[in-house]
Amino acid sequence: MQPILNWRIMRRMILIAFLSLVAFVGLRADDVRYLTTAQFSERVFDYKNNKDWKFKGDKPCVIDFYTTWCGPCKRLAPIMEELSQTYCDQVVFYKVDTERERELAYLFGINSIPQVLYIPMEGKPMLLQGLYPKENIVQIIEEFLLKKD
């Protein structure tokens, strides 16, 4: 009887440790968030009711326009995920599936992918086409979004 009791206690302790670890990892930073057209209007810019650009967010943001079948988009995804962890307190990272959110893709003239929209707190956003190295993306975030020299 004694070994069964110890195994039950040990299983319970392992489960508690695992759940604690999962909860801790889940709270450590923001991941890249998927953005719909409706959420874009709520969180970024209400293009239906405003003609002039007025960013609604409380942090600068990066929006990655992609599709699931795009090779360069797949190579960009882990870079964006890593940067979302690095800049979690300073920048919000979004992804927009151009095949699902056609209206939003049309709004920005997305005709090839990947394209990344960088939106500072003040001023106009910058849209760049193609797959850039991580170092270039970091430079854009630092100099354009966070205004660091």
The CATH class name of the largest domain reads Alpha Beta
Q: Helix and strand string, N-terminal first? A: HEHEHEHEEH
Please identify the structural class as seen in this structure: alpha/beta
According to DSSP, the number of beta strands is: 5
Going by CATH, the architecture of the largest domain would be: 3-Layer(aba) Sandwich
Low-confidence runs: 25-29
CATH superfamily of the largest domain: Glutaredoxin
Indicate the CATH topology of the largest domain: Glutaredoxin
Averaged pLDDT? 87
Protein traits:
2 domains, alpha/beta, 149 residues, single chain, Glutaredoxin, 5 strands, 5 helices, five-stranded mixed sheet, elongated, 45% helix
What does this structure look like?
This protein has 149 residues and is α/β, with parallel strands linked by helices. The chain has a 5-stranded mixed β-sheet. α3 links the parallel β2 (61-66) and β3 (92-97). It has helices at residues 2-27, 37-43, 71-86, 102-107, 134-145, and strands at residues 33-34, 61-66, 92-97, 115-119, 126-129. It has 5 helices and 5 strands; from the N terminus they run αβαβαβαββα. The chain starts with a helix and ends with a helix. The chain folds into 2 domains: 1-28; 33-145, Glutaredoxin, CATH 3.40.30.10.
